[in-house]
Amino acid sequence: MLRWPSQSWIEMPFGADMSEHPPMSPYCSFGFILESLQYNNAFFVRSDIAQGIIPQCAADDAYRVNYKDKSDRSQLFPWNEELEPMLTMTPTEALKYFERRLSTRRGTFELSV
Q1: How many domains does the structure of the chain reveal?
Q2: What is the pLDDT of residues 71-106, one digit of tens each?
Q3: Which ranges constitute the DSSP H helices of the chain?
């Protein structure tokens, strides 16, 4: 997770991995369920409205099927090409990758696994 410092104009997680927060908290803590994921867009529905009519989607499955394994993903998101190696990295490897990649901005953010 990449977190900007509180003195920054943005004080929220950026690029949070939903699969690392079962059952997708903080989203579920506000009463939402993951309805679907389409590429890099997550769609949430209030659980009181879903009421079993809309099943909750498993984050890991949604990510794999609706983003990672999409055959046209690289064509639709060419600006993500330099991040492609991360798809096969362990969390620790990804952390080291970002530490190297953001080394000139060290001290302006927090990285954690």
Answers
A1: 1
A2: 998 899 888 888 888 888 998 998 898 888 888 888
A3: 47-50, 59-63, 73-76, 91-101
3-state helix, strand, coil split of the chain in percent (to 5) is 45, 15, 40
**Residue found by looking up tokens 């990510």 in the block:** 63
4 lies in a domain?
A: no
Nearest to 113 by CA among 7, 20, 26, 34: 20
Q: What is the pLDDT of residues 25-56, one digit of tens each?
A: 566 777 888 888 888 788 888 888 888 787 77
How far, in Å, are 55, 74, 110 from residue 90 at the CA level? 30, 21, 18
Q: What is the DSSP letter of 66?
A: I
Distance (Å, whole) CA 23 – CA 28:
7
Q: Which domain holds residue 76?
A: 18-105
Q: Give CA separation, 92 vs 3, 47, 96, in Å.
A: 17, 34, 6
